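Example: Universal stress protein.
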Amino acid sequence: MKIVLAIDGSDFSKVAIDELAALPLPAGTEVCIVNVFENPMLAAPGALPLGGTLGNYYEETISNAKKSAEDLVNDASKSLRNNNNALSITTAVVNGLPKSAILEKAEAFDADLIVVGSQGHGAFSRFLLGSVSQSLATHADCSVMIVRKRDSKEKNKQ
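Written out as structure tokens, the predicted fold is:
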């Protein structure tokens, strides 16, 4: 089985990591942990350092975003390996738009399953902002497992 675990560092991603770690996965399962970082300059156009010039700001911003993404996938890899050391785990950090980059990675990896955390947006927010998990569920060529973060009331009922 080949699984793409898409994470973004949110609490929802942490729940997705935990859920995947808890699954009874068959021997030989391969997991590719992917984090997509968007160009921070595009996320906040016009964001320049106060009183300064561009200089190396752009390169430093991209470098910092990539370093954070690498830390996220490495931490997720350690967490999965602690729960199941028989997994074959690879990591990938890519720059781009999450919706398309995750689908491209899943296709290139020939994934059987994509695991992603829910963003927890209501229907109106999802309509306005778009949802990575919603897009993956709609457009992926493989199964998609969207993991929800349970609130404390739901945990107490079990």
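The two ends are 30 Å apart (CA to CA).
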